[in-house]
Amino acid sequence: MKRFSILFVILVSVFACKKDKKNTETVEETTDKPEISLYILDGGNIKANNLNIFAQGETYKGESKLLANAYYVINHPKGKLLWDTGLPEGIVGKEPYTTPDGAFTISRPDSLKNQFAKLKITPKDITHIAFSHIHFDHTGAANAFSNAKWIVQQKEMDFINSPEIKNNAFYDVSSFATLENKEVVNGDYDVFGDGSVIIKSMPGHTAGHQVLFLDLPNEGPIILSGDIYHFRENRESGIVPQFNFDIPQSQKSIEDFETFVESKNARVIIQHDLNDFNTYNRRMY
Question: Which residues are in the Metallo-beta-lactamase domain (predicted)?
Answer without folding.
Answer: 67-272
